[in-house]
Amino acid sequence: MYFYLRDYAYGTYQEFSPDSTNAISFDSTNLSPIVGNFSGMKAQVISARLETANIRYRLDGQDPTTTVGILMKADEIIVIQGYGNIANLRFIAVSGNPKLHVHFGFGGSSSKPA
């Protein structure tokens, strides 16, 4: 399955493996790069694919647990728009060793430096 989101250019990428002990979020260098073509811009969209095992996530800035949060199953893809939603996103593994592949998209008037 492919996604095309008009007016966005995917500029940074992060791969990580959440564990079932501590919720994690994205690196600030991917949310708002300080070098390169997207320097000073804020990510406005992500496209993420989960491999291997299930995770849970929350969009409200609170940490999910292994039983609380939106369940994302292995081989699912999510697309989330809006810098605030992306910055507040938190993940935790339900079990196993999940691997999440995330592309960060930049574009539109709200991602341009002031």
Order of helices and strands: EHEEEEHEE
Radius of gyration: 14 Å
> Any guess at the CATH architecture?
Sandwich
Uncertain spans:
none
What would you note in describing this structure?
With 114 residues, this protein is mainly beta. It has a single domain, classed as Jelly Rolls. Helix content is 9%, strand content 34%. The chain has a four-stranded antiparallel beta sheet. The protein has a three-stranded antiparallel beta sheet with strand order 4-3-6, with no helix packed on it. The mean pLDDT is 88.
Task: Throw out a few tags for this protein.
about 110 residues, three-stranded antiparallel sheet, mainly beta, Jelly Rolls
What's the structural blueprint in terms of helices and strands?
Elements: E1 9-16, H1 28-31, E2 45-51, E3 55-58, E4 70-72, E5 77-81, H2 83-88, E6 90-93, E7 99-106
Task: Give a brief rundown of this model.
This protein has two helices and seven strands; from the N terminus they run βαββββαββ. The chain has 114 residues and is mostly beta strands. It has a single domain, classed as Jelly Rolls (Sandwich), CATH 2.60.120.
